[in-house]
DNA sequence: CGAGGTATTGATATCTTTCAATTGGTGTGG
DNA sequence: CCACACCAATTGAAAGATATCAATACCTCG
């Protein structure tokens, strides 16, 4: 799924290129613009749609009993989001960069509704999602702060980075708090790790939201679990 | 999914009772016994089947580059395991208690093969799995060692426990190392937490593999994320 | 009964969090 | 256009939690 931070494994929940619709599905999917700060759906909403992100970035969150928030994932172009648990969405989903999605009717999931093809697409996206999340598990449980942040940067750069000369640059549309919540760290720790990477000339930070990878090799090394 | 350790949310990937097969699917599913210590499948195997566990316990693991092992999940009766990423299995799967499964042909997933009904069942199991894994995320990232172990015990007891008088008992078919790997802790920490729970008269341990819950309320309390 | 793996317990080290202060960036109104 | 205010990010010092290293106790199986 989305930003899963496992360079070593499968490349997140993206639709297989091959299975692009070759004919229009029964109920035509709907395009939808989504402004920054607005919710595509909220936890508990009736899941009437499933969405494929065509551009922008979404943040999927959940709120714990005690009010603390967990960032479940970041949705990037190509991802499918909004898998319902039953009939309800189980996360909040907010655009953190101007986004566009394609909405598929939820009951495309139900037998005899929606094309077999759409159903296939979604099923396979779900299976990829599961695989990706399993990768993320390993991340969360067995990696140090440095390894987590480095992995996060790598994944983000791989999926949204743009090359500049020999280097690659990439925007961090999310706040430090978002990153921290996603990785299971605190803001301070994330900040400290970024500072360290900066001081070691692995990355450069411009205006806190833009990162330039100066030494991808070192970053990759830092993301590896050191025994 | 399997043992997801989120009492506060959805109850893991089990098939919805309602959607039990009402008629035999095209290709009849196969029953299969699985002895302790034997593998149902291994990472990298071609995923020819998907399995529904009818009894026993499985351990799903993955191996990291450095040789360390991550326990992705424990499969309990009612769970569906073996979701393929593409055509390959992405975890090892070993029985840790004498088990029995129903095997469904993998290509039941592909359009026009297998009954629509089986496909539905699997799709919905996959969706539940995703939801359950998201719960597990929160576990791994925002809970302390005590909270993790307590949550783990609760889930296990809820799914496999047997009442004895006012108390409930339950077997831990997995080793401390398995539990530690699953929760992202070390064996020592798991052991220390169990000892503490024992000293506080919340649980009793008999022969290290059997746990008796003496104070479920206290255990539930210990599993809650304390601000 | 003995051997070998598994679990527990203890002491110490390491990492991350927490608390607190400072700096930096952004937007608004004078 | 600058100044202020507010929120986000960084930095520092100390506390807390878990990991690591090491030793001992406990099962289980030949």
UniProtKB/TrEMBL annotation, chains A, B:
Please state every residue range assigned to the domain named HTH crp-type: 143-217
| Chain spans, region Disordered | 1-36
Q: What is this protein called?
A: CRP/FNR family transcriptional regulator, nitrogen fixation regulation protein
Q: Where is the composition biased (Low complexity)?
A: 24-35
Per the UniProt record, the source organism is Sulfitobacter delicatus
As given in the record, the signal peptide range reads: none
Report biased composition (Polar residues) as residue ranges.
1-10
* Entries under Gene3D superfamilies matching the protein: Jelly Rolls, Winged helix-like DNA-binding domain superfamily/Winged helix DNA-binding domain
InterPro entries, per the entry: cNMP-bd_dom, cNMP-bd_dom_sf, Env_Response_Regulators, HTH_CRP, RmlC-like_jellyroll, Tscrpt_reg_HTH_Crp-type_CS, WH-like_DNA-bd_sf, WH_DNA-bd_sf
Annotated GO molecular function terms are: DNA binding; DNA-binding transcription factor activity
Fetch the SMART domains from UniProt: cNMP (SM00100), HTH_CRP (SM00419)
A single Pfam family it belongs to is cNMP_binding
Record-level GO cellular component terms: cytosol
| Residue ranges constituting the Cyclic nucleotide-binding domain according to the UniProt record | 37-82
Provide this UniProt record's keywords sorted from A to Z: DNA-binding, Transcription, Transcription regulation
Q: What is the lineage of its organism?
A: Bacteria, Pseudomonadati, Pseudomonadota, Alphaproteobacteria, Rhodobacterales
């Amino acid at each position: 799924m989305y930003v899963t931070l496992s360079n070593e494994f499968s490349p997140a929940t993206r639709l297989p290129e091959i299975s692009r619709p070759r004919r229009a599905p029964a109920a035509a999917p709907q395009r939808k613009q989504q402004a920054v700060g607005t919710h595509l759906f909220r936890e508990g909403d009736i899941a009437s749609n499933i969405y494929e992100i065509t551009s922008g970035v979404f943040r999927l969150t959940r709120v714990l009993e005690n009010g603390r928030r967990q960032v479940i994932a970041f949705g990037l172009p190509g991802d499918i989001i909004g898998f319902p648990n039953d009939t309800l969405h189980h996360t909040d989903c907010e655009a953190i960069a101007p986004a566009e999605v394609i909405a598929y009717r939820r009951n495309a999931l139900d037998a005899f509704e929606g094309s077999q093809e759409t159903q296939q697409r979604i099923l396979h996206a779900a299976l990829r999602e599961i695989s990706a999340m399993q990768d993320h598990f390993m991340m969360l449980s067995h990696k140090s702060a440095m390894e987590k942040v480095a992995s996060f940067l790598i994944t983000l750069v791989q999926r949204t980075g743009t090359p500049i000369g020999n280097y690659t640059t990439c925007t961090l549309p999310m706040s430090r708090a978002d990153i921290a919540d996603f990785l299971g760290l605190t803001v301070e720790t994330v900040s400290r790790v970024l500072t360290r990477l900066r001081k070691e000339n692995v990355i450069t930070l411009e205006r806190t939201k833009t990162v330039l990878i100066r030494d991808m090799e070192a970053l990759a090394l830092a993301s590896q679990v050191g025994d």
